[in-house]
Specification:
By secondary structure, this protein is an alpha/beta fold. It contains five helices and eight strands. The chain folds into two domains: 106 residues, Rossmann fold (3-Layer(aba) Sandwich), CATH 3.40.50.300; 66 residues, no CATH class. It has a three-stranded parallel beta sheet, sandwiched between helices. Strand 7 and strand 8 form a beta hairpin. It catalyses: GTP + H2O = GDP + phosphate + H(+).
Length: 190
């Protein structure tokens, strides 16, 4: 997972590669809520233009400073409903578990969207009449594990510094999986 702090940066830099957004504001600062609102507006405009469904989570931070709160929880929830995103309040100073829950929630939302967009492939199963089971590895890709795919703007710099990595190739290997149930062998094709 790559994270990117957008403060003072060009939004095009993070909009194109992101699979999810965590927009954070401080519960003790109205101006940070206004900045969060601007980011939410930019993200939703991008979603309308591109048709992408990107999970967004609005997070009110610094709940450990409750006595200095200027942004009510209800205001944060209302903004989250307006932009159709999840809402959380947390404090990095008190307990890392609440911050962890925010990231887990966003990752689950990203997985749901990715799963929904994943094309389904038909699965064909045939009985192997020979009765012999020849274990064959399942269909997969063999690739160099040292190659890191540049996805985020940060990792683009890593890619540029390693010109020889552009020669890394992904080699597809197609095989058939087999399994045995009740003394019968089956092959799976997709």
């Amino acid at each position: 997972m790559d994270t990117y702090d957008t403060e003072g940066s060009n939004p095009d830099r993070y909009l194109k590669w992101a699979h999810g957004f965590v927009v954070v504001y401080c519960i003790t600062s109205e101006s940070s809520l206004d900045t969060a609102r601007d980011y939410l507006e930019t993200i939703t405009q991008y979603q309308r233009i591109t048709g992408k469904d990107i999970p967004i989570s609005l997070v009110g931070n610094k709940t450990d400073l409750e006595r200095y709160r200027t942004v009510s929880k209800m205001t944060g929830e209302s903004l989250a409903r307006q932009y159709e995103c999840s809402f959380h309040e947390t404090s990095a100073a008190d307990d890392y578990r609440s911050v962890e829950l925010v990231f887990h929630s966003v990752i689950r939302d990203i997985a749901r969207v990715s799963e929904r967009l994943m094309p389904l492939q038909p699965l064909f199963i045939s009985e192997d009449k020979s009765g012999l089971l020849n274990p064959v590895p399942s269909q997969g890709l063999t690739h160099r594990t040292s190659f890191r795919r540049a996805k985020s703007p940060k990792s683009q710099d890593v890619k540029d510094s390693k010109k020889d990595d552009k020669d890394a190739k992904v080699i597809a290997r197609r095989t058939t999986s087999t399994f045995r149930i009740f003394n019968k062998s089956f092959k799976i094709f997709n």
